[in-house]
Specification:
This protein is of the alpha/beta class. The chain contains 19 helices and 20 strands. The chain has 3 domains: about 190 residues, FAD/NAD(P)-binding domain, CATH 3.50.50.60; about 110 residues, no CATH class; about 110 residues, no CATH class. Helix 3 packs antiparallel against helix 4 and helix 4 crosses helix 9. The protein is globular. The protein binds flavin-adenine dinucleotide. Flavin-adenine dinucleotide (FAD) binds next to helix 1, strand 5 and helix 18.
Amino acid sequence: MVTMAKSIIIIGAGMGGMAAGIYGQINGFQTRIFEMHNLPGGQCASWERKGYTFDACIHHLFGCSPESKIHELWLELGAMPRELAYTKECVSVISPEGKLFFDYYDPGQLRDHLNQLAPKDSKVIQDYIEGIKLFEKVDIMDELMLGGFSGIVKHLPTAIIALKWFKPTMADFAQRFSDPFLRQAFPLLEYSLPDCPFAIHLAKHAAGHKKDIAWPVGASKAFAGSIAEYYESLGGEIHYNSRVKKIITKNGRAVGVKLEDGTEEYADIIISNADGRKTLLDMLEGQFMNEKLTKYCGEPVDETNWAVQVFLGVDMDLSGEPSSLVMLLEEPVRIAGHETKSLEMQTYSFDRTMAPEGKGVIKVELVSRYSYWKELARDRSRYEEEKEKVAEQVIGFLPGIKGRVEAVDVPTLVTWERFMGGTHGFVNMPKKEFDFLGSLYKNDGMTVPGLENFYFVGTWATSAGALFVNALSGKKTIKMICLKEGVKFASSLFAADHRVKESLLV
Ligand SMILES: Cc1cc2nc3c(=O)[nH]c(=O)nc-3n(C[C@H](O)[C@H](O)[C@H](O)COP(=O)(O)OP(=O)(O)OC[C@H]3O[C@@H](n4cnc5c(N)ncnc54)[C@H](O)[C@@H]3O)c2cc1C
């Protein structure tokens, strides 16, 4: 007897949505994605302006080493193998006097460099290096998120020792230095987030040294594009410029979606990769809210880093500049409605595709508030004026740039909101206490009580701002669906093929 493949509609072609599509196709479902934008990738976005490429997303792409389990995930999704570029430092910091600290990935080079900068701090420097080496022994993200039980047990003794690094923050560790420059620099090393657990920085360092962190040549658009291409090669469909307005339900089951143009599309299963607040409150019209979901839908974060990005295409060769730099300022300045003592920036000369030969791209990322820009956006000309002012301020801080800027773009949280529909732009995670183990093993947030055949993938389900974690959520969801439907899950076409052969033998 021939059984019809079950159909799945996915709202959004972000990492989670596309991954759900790929594993869905591999496991015999008929999937379609409805995406409001005209591009795949969601937050994983880059675009061209006057011959320059501006990348709003990737700083550090995990899963670049063939040894890592995250790499396997990218292989399954068609994102690897690909051309990658590596940097020798994680980040660097420059003082107003021109003192430079390179946070080298290589622990030996890092130790020597730090000892030269701050010989009196040799004890804390040694602790830093040992911390990095410890995290090289146990790949916490790989083993906990993608590893099996045996991998976790094998790494448990080292992981227990590593636990001591989860309590101190970047700012706490910085306090241990006597050198004033390093005391100022260290809190800012992890995306200028002084409250970030120091363990995250150590884990990133270890991954960088193992070459598990790299940059996908061609930027975020090319990375996301290869996943979309693979999805379509498996027979999946992406319908662009197709905003979902409503999820159609019948007797407590999700049965379809209604698009902005009024079209209705039906399927056996609906998956949302869109913002949770918009999905629950608008698309589902608040019908399935309970106490917990109401709490999750509470007011999202207003102030965040990366809220404003200033992109500059400059007629300058930036190949001698650090790839990622935090510039400490002499005096605090007010910029984008926020007072800051430092500017965080990236240059991209490691990727020849980012700018015409001999030219370069700089991205400066600023802390700001969603409400600040939302208020300005009520009057388009005030909004544009403020963006221009911010760009001018930034240009004024960068030596030698004035007069050589050929392209400028200043996306804000309101821009993200416009293109991707998320509440407060990308700052749309559910309002819940961060539960590290919960986010790894529980399916909390992936389903909606009282609504059958409906699943969430992506940031709303994971509460994590990382490409691989959100892609992984697509895999987890299709696994859940396979379990429910009695289908043996396959993670690749090869495994699916093998599964068919096995079943023919029975
Ligand atoms: C500035 C920035 C820098 C980052 N840097 C890194 C980094 O260096 N490394 C890293 O690993 N991660 C990074 N991240 C995080 C990473 O990009 C995200 O975690 C990941 O892309 C989110 O994937 P997602 O599955 O949640 O989908 P999203 O990217 O949120 O995509 C959701 C999709 O749904 C679509 N959609 C929404 N509503 C509708 C609707 N009603 N109808 C149809 N379609 C809809 C949107 O248009 C979008 O395409 C960064 C994120 C940001 C914002």
